[in-house]
Amino acid sequence: MKRNKQKQMRKMAAAALALSMLVGSPAYAADPITSSSSSVVGGLVLSFADVSATHWAIKHITKLASLGIIQGYERQEYRPENTVSQQEVIVMALRMMGLESEALKSKADTVLPVSVDTFFKPYIAYAFERGLIDRQEEIADTTNKTAWGAREASREWVAKLVIRALGKQNLANQQATVGSTFNDATEMSTWANGYVNAAVQLQIVQGMDGNTFQPKGKVTRAQMATFLSRADKHLTTRSDRVTIGYLMGQTDRKISVLNAKGETKDYAITSDTVVYNAKDDTRIPLSSIKLTNEIYVVQNLGNALYIELTNDQQQLETNEGTLNEIYLDQMIVSIQQGSQKKLFEIAQNVTVTDNEGRGLSIGSIAPGSIVALQRVTLLKDPKITQIIVKQAPVSKTAEGTVLSINADQNQITFLEKSGQNETYSTKNGVTVTQSSGTFIDLSKLRVGDSVTYDVKANVLTAIKITKQADFGETVQGKLISLSDDKQIMTVTRSGGTALEAYYIASNALVTIEGMSSASLYDLEVGDELKLDLLNNKVINTTVTSRSVKQYTFASILNYDNESKVLTITTDSGSVAAFKMEDKTIIRYGDSTLPMNSFQTLFVKNTKVDLKISKDKIVQIANTTKIEGTVAQLNAQMGEITIRSLSGQNLSFKGGSSTPVETLDKTGATMADLKVGDTVVLVISSGAQEYVSSIATKKVGVYKTLVTNPSTRQLSVKDENGTLLTFVIDNNDKIVNPGKATHNFEDIGLDEYVKATFNGTKPDQLVLLNTVRGKVTSMDVSLGTLTIQDFQGGIQVLPVGQQFTIKQNGSISSALSSLKPDDRVEIIKDVNDKSIIQVATPSKRTISSYDTVLNQLYLKPTANNDKTTYNFFAKAYLHKGTQSVAASAFVENEEVTIYVLDDKIIEIEKK
Predict the structure, then answer these.
(1) Which residues are in the SLH domain (predicted)?
(2) What is 840-909's CATH number?
(3) Has residue 19 got a pLDDT over 50?
(4) pLDDT (mean) for 101-110
(5) Is domain 771-838 classified as CATH 1.20.120?
């Protein structure tokens, strides 16, 4: 008898020891976990010696330990990899549901249909009574000789129990007929499919390797903790030590929580308090939780043991402005928002802090401070419960760049030399002077201007422009005069009579429809013009009132030397007469002729090309080349018809051996041409109806890869990555708009050019202005983008309505898809449409820098990101606003890199 009693005592002790559940680590709420040592607080085991701070289930074990669901083995071990028995799972589930006290009311001598250890009897009896487990289901397996309670719980059995504990039996019934997505679904018991599907849908369980569920697999103690922790959010009944509500107050010693009943409860913060984020299960500092965030709190004896941030959306109404005055006797605060003055009532228990959360007295807030007034929308009371002093009144003299001008709000934002953005009011008026000391109107101040400015109590009092920003605008007007040296243009604006004079930039472009290479000499007094200005200098002139009509391959009928009238027959057979002028350009072959030589070479029936403006001949040349698009083609007969630039259809004869030169293929023939190709035909000098050679014409935008000034060789690639190498034989083929020079040396690496090819020979190379920098603002209505470029300047770029934004392989045409701080590269395509490419940012760790190869090596990441990068030729490497050399980057340094076209365009040191 004594032996039986001792045996029974040993079994009860073993059963008690078998009851283990999970828990976390003790550390302070605001600190990272640095220890895995065990701790016991208020009778609760809060951490275990064998569960490290980096264990994958640490959060879930910590949560269940604080709830008292798990206590552990001797030596305060949790043994997370041990399997859990069915009777242990029942106890854990009932404790999670807050039903342990109800379960213990069951009689220990209740007769059960299954065999369990004595300690577990009241829990199992209550589980049968409540319907968590079913008698017929549990006694169905007669092959298993292990006692029912001591059996290792399977994954499918745990799924069933947890779903029933949550009251989700109806969901399981609905999911029973839905096919499983797991590859081993055939291994499930016939009853398990609905429970497993429901558990997956509620995100309680996940699959294993190879998209399997392993339904008969055993459940470890760490896995069981995770199942119950994830199930907690679906519970309808839970422990009375759990509070779910909104954070209404917080210090380093306590938190205040508004619960579902509308009651506000205080809980103490101790060194054992732990805080987690529900989004990603990471440990976070208590300071990460903001006022009115939704939180889940486990407390014991008024102490918060476990806090979980479940929703970071703040339930606040915020009004920000400049403090006018606080009327403490009436508990009213007055703030200025733009041109409006607003009054708000203040609650008696209002809290006042600075931007860092440090407490302030309400009487210490100085007028002129930038404040945020906050009201909790969860409460019916409209009074302000918190005042945050975001910025004390500022009085200073500073230097910076104008970042934005908000006339409606009477505010100007500056980018200061420190790299910070500062906004100040202009409500009392501000004096603006140029560097010469001349007073100007505030409306003349521009975004991008470099300035010094004076501030008194947050209000601007004076601004001095030290350097004007590049400013572009468009003017419509009529040409009145052009100086003899072609440096000054005088116009009257459309709708006005006042004269306006503008300097003309070097290499300014002139566009006249129908004239491929117009210049300032082709402008005429009275022309209606569209002028593109940069800093009040003309960089591009477009004639809008007339076009130059081109006649190609016309035949001379007669020329009257006295009247200087030339009569021609067009290809359609019509007759036209035009007047020659002293400034008419006369070309024969590659030579330019004087007027007195015209009649000698341009005889009757000579085929000529003419450019006509109104009734005057701008240029005449004997036809040696014709440009147009292929309209008809008979390669076998060697016949080709083109549509010329003037719209004429002209037919020519060639032969099967007529050479064809194309950029895309060596040894091309007429058979390689197709209708719609742009071509240049070289006409036979003896018989002008015959073609001696053909070259295709192609215009494209290319990125420069290699330049060789000694050989004048240029290697580029197009937008598809196709490589091309060619020679620019002279500088006359280079156009550098708005710049003083147009030399080969002006072509920069990693820059863009617009190249025109006749066959394989480059005919013209236009250097494009590429802007790279940081987006500071967008104006969707005006179609403008404000960029702080890598040189520190501010540029306002008009992109209009026709542009393309490329980012991470996607394409957008909405300016709103950009955001401030995006790093971008902006170029123009062949049709002058803006292409905005957004660089990809990432935070990385430096490994080393190769000074010979000019390559940066970065340490590997968990995502196997690229580790070796080259730099853009003009990459911006900096810390704050201070530029640094590439060699300044050292091992283990944290940086942010911005990558475009597989190269680094910017590195920002922390």
Answers:
(1) 44-107, 179-242
(2) 2.40.50
(3) no
(4) 81
(5) no
Give the separation between CA 895 and CA 878, rounded to whole angstroms.
10
Q: Which two tokens stand for residue 35?
A: 């220890």
Compute the distance between CA of residue 812 and CA of residue 46 in angstroms, rounded to an integer: 52
Quickly count: other Cβ atoms within 10 Å of residue 611's Cβ.
24
Question: Could you report the per-residue pLDDT of 634-686, keeping only the tens digit for each?
Answer: 888 889 999 887 777 888 888 767 899 998 888 898 989 999 999 999 988 76
Mean pLDDT across 15-21? 35
Instruction: With beta carbons less than 8 A apart as the criterion, state whether 829 and 701 touch.
Output: yes
Confidence of residue 16 (pLDDT cuts 50, 70, 90): very low
Cα dihedral value 90, 95, 96, 99, nearest 10: 100
CA distance 239 to 63: 12
Question: Please, are residues 679 and 691 in contact by the beta-carbon 8 Å criterion?
Answer: no
* Cα gap 678→514, rounded to integer Å: 16
Tokens representing residue 338 in the block: 């733009």
Return d(Cα 20, Cα 78) in angstroms, integer. 6
725 phi, psi to nearest 5 deg: -125, 135
> Which amino acid would we find at residue 56?
W
The CATH homologous superfamily to which domain 242-311 belongs is Copper binding periplasmic protein CusF (2.40.50.320)
User: What letter represents residue 186's amino acid?
Assistant: T
Name every residue whose Cβ is closer than 8 Å to that of residue 262 and which is 6 or more positions away in sequence: none
**How much of the chain, in percent, has pLDDT values that exceed 90?**
47
Give the integer Cα–Cα distance in Å for 734 and 677: 25
- Over residues 703-750, the pLDDT tens digits come to 999 999 999 999 999 988 899 999 999 998 998 886 778 899 999 999
| pLDDT (0 to 100) of residue 108 | 63
CB 443 within 8 A of CB 402: no
Predicted confidence (pLDDT) at residue 630 exceeds the cutoff of 70: yes
Instruction: Quickly name the fold that domain 472-543 has.
Output: OB fold (Dihydrolipoamide Acetyltransferase, E2P) (2.40.50)
Distance, in Å, from the CA atom of 349 to the CA atom of 493, rounded to the nearest integer, reads: 64
The pLDDT, as a whole number, for residue 240 is: 87
Q: CA–CA separation, 737 vs 740, rounded Å?
A: 9
pLDDT of residue 437: 87
Reading the block at residue 214, the tokens are 């392993």
Does an H or E element contain 855, and which?
A: strand 855-858
Q: Which residue, 356, 358, 364, 354, is CA-closest to 387?
A: 354
Assign domain 548-622 to its CATH architecture.
Answer: Beta Barrel (2.40)
Q: Has residue 844 got a pLDDT over 80?
A: yes
> Which two three-digit tokens encode residue 176?
């029973």
Calculate the average pLDDT of the chain: 87
* Predicted confidence (pLDDT) at residue 1 exceeds the cutoff of 90: no
Nearest to 770, CA basis, from 756, 781, 754, 757: 754
CA separation, residue 606 to residues 88, 198, 598, 603 (Å): 107, 90, 12, 6
476-504: b or e for each residue (b if 16 or more CB lie within 10 Å)? Answer: ebbbeebeeeeeebbbeeeeeeeeeebeb
Degrees to nearest 5, angle at CA 538 with 535 and 539: 95
CA torsion through residues 893, 899, 904, 907, sign:
negative
pLDDT at 260: 87
| 316-391 is a CATH 3.40.50.720 domain | no
Tokens matching residue 668: 């091309």
Query: pTM (2 decimals)?
Result: 0.51
- 550 to 186, 525, 627: CA distances (angstroms): 80, 21, 11
Backbone angles phi, psi at 430, to 5 degrees: -145, 140
Over range 167-185, report the average pLDDT. 93
SS (HEC) of 492-520: EECCCCCEEEEEEEEEEEEEECCECCCCH
Task: Say yes or no to pLDDT of 487 above 70.
Answer: yes
For the record, the structure tokens of 266 come out as 């205080």
Average pLDDT (434-439) is: 87
**Residue 686: DSSP 8-state:** S
